[in-house]
Amino acid sequence: MAANDRAAAPGKSGGSSGADGLMRASLSAVAPGTALRDGLERILRGNTGGLIVLGWDKTVESMCTGGFILDVEFTATRLRELCKLDGGIVIDKDITKILRAGVQLVPDPTIPTEETGTRHRTADRVSKQVSFPVVSVSQSMRLIALYVDGQRRVLEDSAAILSRANQALATLERYKLRLDEVAGTLSALEIEDLVTVRDVTAVAQRLEMVRRIATEIAEYVVELGTDGRLLALQLDELIAGVEPERELVVRDYVPEPTAKRSRTVDEALFELDALTHAELLELPTVARALGYTGSPETLDSAVSPRGFRLLAKVPRLPGAIIDRLVEHFGGLQKLLAASVDDLQAVDGVGEARARSVREGLSRLAESSILERYV
Question: What pLDDT score does 366 carry?
Answer without folding.
Answer: 86
